[in-house]
Amino acid sequence: MSDNYVVILDEENFEEEVINSKIPVMIDFWAEWCGPCQMVIPIVNELAEEFEGVAKVAKLNVDDNRSLAMKYRVMSIPTILFFKDGEEVKREVGAKSKEEYVALIDALI
Predict the structure, then answer these.
(1) Looking at the domain assignment, is residue 2 inside a domain?
(2) What is the CATH number of the domain that holds 103?
(3) Could you write out the three-class secondary structure of 37-90?
């Protein structure tokens, strides 16, 4: 399973991909060195493919985008933020099961 469906966020595309998105967005704030983050990666990839066109699934590397991590007060990773209509509507800290993420996305669409 590839991550071709996952939107890779950075300072340049965050507003366009998240704030201006017409569909709900799930963002995985993560880092290479984070063990629990590595466990979430395959789940994020599957969700991105399954929800394509209905909800956007994205990843943001906190080491490469510190200002965004600070702006959204991400203190520990993985932190998953859910946006709808440009606003943060839900936050989950720590790795969760695929089923838990599916339920959270379903509640937004």
Answers:
(1) no
(2) 3.40.30.10
(3) HHHHHHHHHHHHHHCCCCCEEEEEECCCCHHHHHHCCCCCCCEEEEEECCEEEE
| Mean pLDDT for the stretch of residues 43-71 | 97
For the chain, the average pLDDT equals 95
Kindly list the strands in the beta sheet with 7-9, ordered across the sheet, starting from the edge strand earlier in the chain: 7-9, 56-61, 25-30, 79-84, 87-93
Q: What is the pLDDT of residue 3?
A: 59
CB 29 within 8 A of CB 78: yes
Task: Give the catalytic positions in this structure.
Answer: 34, 37
- Domain membership of residue 32 as a residue range: 7-108
Pick from 59, 54, 45, 49: nearest CA to 7: 59
